[in-house]
Amino acid sequence: MSAVQLPNQLTRVSLFDLFLTKTEVDGDVDTEILAQMTEGFSGADIESTCREAALKGVRDLFTKEMSDQMKVRPTNQQDLLEAVDCYRRQLLAQASNNVGVEERAYVCKTCKAIKQELDQQNLDHE
User: Are 57 and 25 in contact (CB under 8 A)?
Assistant: First the structure.
């Protein structure tokens, strides 16, 4: 029995593009950045992440700020970044019993490095 390989970065970009066609998306969404942040995610993980991000707009319909608008807003980059972070935490929590301290530290270090790089890119664009 052979193991299924996880998608590489190019495939993750394609998966985000595919799954985000199912919802209205804001123009600020950058699937390249999302693919960088989701190394180790399966196709199903990426689909769940996109679905969770899309639900953020639906949840906003029920807040006071959005109550006068009865239209679901498009999914934006921040929704997706929050969904990636949330899903990553869920994956780490599920794996925590099977993963050693060193592996968890590596994942956290990698996430922190990516976040710092993204923050720097945002500063460069301002």
Answer: no
- The model's pTM is 0.70
Q: What are phi and psi of 19, to 5 degrees?
A: -70, -30
Is the alpha carbon torsion for 120, 117, 36, 39 positive or negative?
negative
3 state DSSP class of 25: strand
Could you give the CA distance from residue 28 to residue 6 in angstroms, rounded to a whole number?
A: 26
CATH number of 9-125: 1.10.8.60
> pLDDT at position 70, please?
73
Task: Specify the amino acid at residue 76.
Answer: N
Contact between 36 and 9 under an 8 Å Cβ cutoff? The reply is yes
pLDDT of amino acid 126: 56
Strand partners, 75: 25
